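>> received
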Amino acid sequence: MDDQGLDIRLTREEALEAWANKRVFKVKPSKMRDYPLFFLHDKEGKLHKSSPAVCIYGNTWHRVGHDKEIGEPVLKEPRPEVHEYDESSEEGSEDTDDDAP
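>> returned
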């Protein structure tokens, strides 16, 4: 049993919770998954088979898994390193510095 995997069932709306991030992009439904999700892309903006689906849950990025029995998203382990690419916090601090007299 995976101790890190939370395996909390998510609604499709919860699985789409995200905020602006330089490496997280929405991906359309596929044959295996009939709903859209956000995926972590590489630094060139490319999606790979190993790219994890992610969402915001409790203000922290988490990996999103897929329950094969019911075909719905499930919450997995936290991925706090994804916050390194959040856009709102970086841009907000840069704007404040630039606007200061």
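>> The helical segments are 12-15, 87-99.
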